[in-house]
Design brief:
Length: 475
């Protein structure tokens, strides 16, 4: 399609159809709402020269240019291109595809329900039976959520369980997807007497005065298949909204979360197909074997990466949100941006394998507006590749200037991942660390697609207001 739009055939069709000329290609393509389309008749000479200089620098280190990819565009205009339509190892840029497919499937306000039930009566604070957990694919159920769940059970009057902790459905905790292991972690989290040092540390991050739950379960952890007969529904736990789950996943490039989301969507082939369709690029430009990016077999073209970012931005705009609500912002969020020199206020996703370094996202500029870029590198000097990526963005920003009004266009509507404001006087901070947890996020109603005035209501992990009590215990 890129070659078709830039060849002049579209203009010929307009003439044959008696469409008045000239016509603004940006307006036309915007009406088609296809992010993967570009109008490449007038690439930016300065941008092309900067990218060429960048590639020459890579060649000088002994790297092969055919294993490097760069794509830079503004709106539907191509500014610079090298191997732009060639699928290359994407590493964690794969999570951009997973994020897009998840949005297409559920919408940004979706919340994953975990149901808690009982198989016996509750008398004098004792559940005389099993405590049943029915999971429903929540990828971000961690210590803080278990603590909040235990406190809600205590508030309902439940402090002991004579039976077992029974796990059903798709339940994971602390990114552990084995139901028996996840259930063992939950049993610890519900009872402060069993807390590990890690659980104690996470409790300290919760608001001052958060109680330490005491739900003592006498039996073992068991895994069962649905349905569980004669079960009393006690309460419903709702996850953080999908937009905030994706934000945390992308800040820390959390592989287990990405794998869980991709599996819930339908697996890597479904993620790739949905992402390609939403981005308007050929399916061949997004080739995935998983949802996290682990493995060089996950290959995406630089053009497709940019198109996916643009598709996400287009999807979120009606919700008064932007890509900054799903991806880390340089100068604001930490995670994989630690120790990087990416221009402040850029919204980016990093990617790292042992011989792959990738970077993509949005760069706000004064002269060109919002620039979409993707840089995919192959080489073993990861620090050197990251430094060159950062410098390329700094050089482009120096050419086109910074602009606070453009920054405001993509400012996140959710709470920052830390208390650190945007710092325009200091470099941002990245590497690809192991998966971690993060406090400080927001929630929303579970309506999967529609915008809502409460979409940006602020909650934190461990806030038990997301626990809906369904059964009144007689004390």
């Amino acid at each position: 399609m890129l070659e078709l739009v830039s060849s002049g055939l579209v203009s010929l069709w307009f003439k044959m159809a008696h469409v008045p000329q000239p016509i603004n290609p940006d307006s036309l393509l915007a009406s088609w709402n296809t992010p993967g389309l570009v109008f490449s008749a007038q690439p930016d000479p300065a941008g092309e020269a900067t990218v060429k200089q960048y590639l020459q620098g890579l060649s000088a280190t002994g790297l092969t240019e055919t294993t490097q990819g760069v794509w830079v565009q503004v709106g539907y205009n191509l500014l610079a291109n090298h191997q732009g339509t060639q699928p290359l190892p994407a590493a964690s840029l794969t999570k951009v595809a997973t994020s897009l497919a998840a949005l297409e499937t559920w919408g940004p306000a979706h919340q994953f329900d975990t149901l808690i039930g009982a198989t016996g009566p509750i008398q004098n604070g004792v559940l005389q039976g099993d405590l049943v957990i029915q999971g429903n694919n929540d990828p971000f159920f961690v210590w803080e959520e278990a603590i909040a769940l235990g406190n809600t059970l205590n508030r309902m009057g439940i402090r002991q369980v004579t039976g077992s902790l029974v796990i059903t459905g798709n339940f994971a905790m602390n990114y552990e997807t084995d139901p028996l292991l996840a259930g063992t972690l939950l049993k610890q989290g519900l009872n402060a007497q069993l807390w590990s040092e890690e659980a104690k540390a996470q409790h300290l991050n919760l608001p001052k005065g958060t109680p330490q739950p005491q739900v003592a379960i006498a039996g073992d952890v068991k895994v069962a298949t649905l349905p569980i007969p004669k079960q009393i529904a006690l309460l419903r736990h709702q996850s953080l909204p999908l937009a905030q789950i994706l934000k945390q996943m992308n800040i820390y490039s959390n592989n287990p979360m990405a794998e869980m989301l991709a599996a819930s969507v339908g697996g890597a082939p479904v993620v790739a197909a949905q992402a390609a369709k939403a981005a308007g690029v050929p399916q061949a430009e997004i080739q995935l074997i998983n949802g996290s990016g682990l493995g060089p077999e996950n290959q995406i073209s630089p053009r497709a990466v940019c198109a996916m970012f643009m598709a996400i931005e287009n999807y979120l705009k009606p919700q008064q949100m932007s890509v900054a609500d799903l991806f880390p912002v340089s100068g604001r969020d930490g995670g994989t941006l630690e120790d990087r020199n990416i221009p402040v206020a850029s919204v980016v996703k990093t990617g790292t394998l042992w011989d792959v370094s990738t970077l993509a996202g949005a760069l706000p500029t004064r002269d060109r507006g919002l620039i979409w870029f993707a840089i995919l590198n192959r080489g073993e000097d990861l620090d050197g590749l990251r430094n060159r990526q950062d410098q390329l963005l700094q050089n482009l920003l120096e050419q086109w200037g910074a602009d606070q009004s453009v920054v405001a266009e993509i400012a996140p509507n959710s709470a920052p991942s830390s208390n650190t404001p945007l710092n325009f006087s200091a470099p941002a901070s990245s590497s690809e660390p192991a998966a971690t947890q993060l406090m400080g996020t927001t929630t929303a109603p579970s309506n999967p697609k529609a915008a809502s005035p409460t979409l940006h209501q602020k909650f934190q992990l461990g806030d038990d207001r997301r626990n809906q009590i369904l059964f009144k215990v007689q004390v």
